[in-house]
Amino acid sequence: MMKTASVEVLEEAPVLSADPYGDIFYAGSAEAYNTAIQGALKVVTGFLQRTKKPFSGIKPDQLAQLFSTIDFDTPLPDYKSLLKEVEQLYVNHATAFHLPQYIAHLNCPVVIPALAAEVLVSAINSSQDTYDQSAGGTLMECKIIDWTGREIGYSADCDGVFTAGGSQSNLMGLLLARDHYAMKHRSHNIKLLGLPEDAGRYRIFVSEKAHFSNQKNASLLGLGEQALVSIPADERFRMDATLLEAAIKKELEQGNIPIAVVATAGTTDFGNLDPLLAIGRLAAQYGLWYHIDAAYGCGLLLTEKYRYLLNGAELSDSITVDYHKSFFQPISSSAFIVKHKASLDIIRHHADYLNPEEQDYDELPAQINKTVTQSTRRFDALKLWFTLRLMGKEKLGEYTEVIIDTAEQAACLIEADPELELLSHSDLGVLVFRHKPSYVHSRDYDTFNQAIKKSLFFSGEVLLASTRVNGHFYLKFTILNPLTTITDIQNILTAIKVHGKDAHRQ
User: Which of 135, 180, 274, 347 has the fewest CB atoms within 10 Å, measured from its CB?
Assistant: First the structure.
């Protein structure tokens, strides 16, 4: 019966081509792989050569029309057709982060060694969860984590793991803070038993300018956004340490339970660092878990000139580092690092088929023991390995110093212009300001600056960001490109004024 059924299946199978597996990456398809890679390389080269503006200016409804004829049930005949389609739908309208006229969000230009590593990462396709799926990749990732920890000021007892991004790393920081408190002070294992009865009184202190992931993560952890205590910022939009201590005392007086404080080393809106040293001392004094969100400011680790701004980072219990923001790495390349490796034990979960409890992890290390949301995980650490080994820390540090110096020159330029209003200088490279010419009434500044941003975006000429401060609309520069010069900044400011005049006429 079984044999007959098997023969029938074989007889009904379709006739296969001469090389039925020619699209799978293996020894027999090396030529096809080379053809595909060379075709993609031509597209990238064309993108660099043809792209003169950071954006094409195409509107969503126009772009959507190009997708109306796509039929996934009908494959294209060859790579030439495929790449032509992708150019029309994506590449021709992709945002060009490498151009100085892109000055919007925390998207950095990327270094070439990291791009070379991407070829290996995607083709060999190692998964970083266990040693038997990655081997040398596991040890490379551990080596980079150790290096970063030492740069922060941690001892050899530090540990960590690469993550998908800063929000995930911040989630891990709050999770450890929550579970560490419950285990240490209540002998309660949240992983096994769920939230304790007093979890509704847990309090986490964050700056009013901290990243929004704190709200999302508090919600995901079952504490709710009510667990977050917002601390007012000073005139440079940094957490006020004096007000932090007052808030801690107030929560204690009200019978609540302070468990953690999150400092920001590089705010998204202003690029300034909270007073890390003062916050660290308060965290130690009141027994709080101290997490630092250095997703943006981690680039200061690379420079001797400005790394003093991170003084106090060594006091933290955990830290978020985004290499894809300030180390010029392709997305994604981020890490979560703890001062003491034992801190990660609380999130470890064993699966018999993957990381059994009896396994000797000194002999066969498994990075899956250090993460909460990813099992299968790309070998993103290889990109930074390529970068550090070929370029070195000093070269990357020079890029960071150029960016900070250019941002300070730009701040002075804006500050000296009577038609512009700068809210703050920046430790890193974010400048919040607005255009307020004499021909516009102050009550119309918000709508006027909104019109400027929209006009520039759809012209494709300049991409800048925006934010609201005290309810009012401001334009925002995020300078994260060492190729951006003060002349580029002057040209962008001129474009803002030209588009402002056009908007006013309309």
Answer: 135
